[in-house]
Amino acid sequence: MISTRDNQRIEIEIKDVSKVFEGRTGPNVALETVNLNLMQNEFVSVVGPSGCGKTTLLNIIAGLLEPTTGSVRVGGKEVRGPGEGKGVVFQQYALFPWMTVQKNVEFGLKLKNISPQERKEIAASYIELVGLKDFGNAYPKELSGGMKQRVAIARAYAARPDVLLMDEPFGALDAQTRAQLQENLLNTWEKEKKTCFFITHDVEEAVLLAQRVILMSARPGRIKEIIDIQLPYPRSQQLKVTKEYNDIKNALWSKVYEEYLDHMK
Ligand SMILES: Nc1ncnc2c1ncn2[C@@H]1O[C@H](COP(=O)(O)OP(=O)(O)OP(=O)(O)O)[C@@H](O)[C@H]1O
């Protein structure tokens, strides 16, 4: 079993982070005093009502947005922009349409000092890991949505980041593909161990994947509660038929729904 206690090194340190957007109708406080540490190799899911600042927080960790106050450290270094060490997967697979699957996955490795042969081998191994061994020469337009998303995940993994930031990566997929990719991600994480920050609207998915679930409150976004998911790994879809899983899921669902109702008041 992998627990957060297996490694005590902090990989992502979010300290007093707030974010205020200046809107036409005045300031919009998207995040208010968010404090959170993710341990090395930890898998954390983030849930909360629409507009509570999940993506904003991810973008700040990724270095795509600057916080208004506070700071984020990844691997001990203050985040000052996007770059090495952080892999990001968005809901919409951002693949280059003119490149094959193999070339798309190799792309992130070009920036590193890796020989073309080694690049090829690393990319091929991750393409195999996500179950696309026979599609290395295919172009994105020849792939289904789920396959494209697997390529995006392979590309993020191939660059060997220490942290993987995922913003509803399976949100646009059908239930079966989603289940398959969840399983795929679990297997990959169990093998490769990365620090994962995974945003989802799906409570089932949050519980299935994570060691801890962060529940965010409606605007202004704050951390409302952190729930330890005490379910053993390796995990698979089979977990969903167990009482332990369903008890945790139902309790979390009620909390998320309460937060949503509060937000609608
Ligand atoms: N670039 C921006 N400029 C102005 N306001 C923004 C910007 N990005 C986000 N916001 C505002 O910040 C708040 C949080 O948005 P964010 O996208 O982080 O929420 P979210 O929890 O990810 O939502 P969802 O679950 O719907 O994706 C919202 O009120 C949104 O309107």
From TrEMBL:
<protein>
    <submittedName>
        <fullName>NitT/TauT family transport system ATP-binding protein</fullName>
    </submittedName>
</protein>
<keyword id="KW-0547">Nucleotide-binding</keyword>
<dbReference type="InterPro" id="IPR003439">
    <property type="entry name" value="ABC_transporter-like_ATP-bd"/>
</dbReference>
<dbReference type="GO" id="GO:0005524">
    <property type="term" value="F:ATP binding"/>
</dbReference>
<feature type="domain" description="ABC transporter">
    <location>
        <begin position="12"/>
        <end position="239"/>
    </location>
</feature>
<dbReference type="InterPro" id="IPR003593">
    <property type="entry name" value="AAA+_ATPase"/>
</dbReference>
<dbReference type="InterPro" id="IPR050166">
    <property type="entry name" value="ABC_transporter_ATP-bind"/>
</dbReference>
<keyword id="KW-0067">ATP-binding</keyword>
<dbReference type="InterPro" id="IPR027417">
    <property type="entry name" value="P-loop_NTPase"/>
</dbReference>
<keyword id="KW-0813">Transport</keyword>
<dbReference type="GO" id="GO:0016887">
    <property type="term" value="F:ATP hydrolysis activity"/>
</dbReference>
<dbReference type="InterPro" id="IPR017871">
    <property type="entry name" value="ABC_transporter-like_CS"/>
</dbReference>
<dbReference type="Pfam" id="PF00005">
    <property type="entry name" value="ABC_tran"/>
</dbReference>
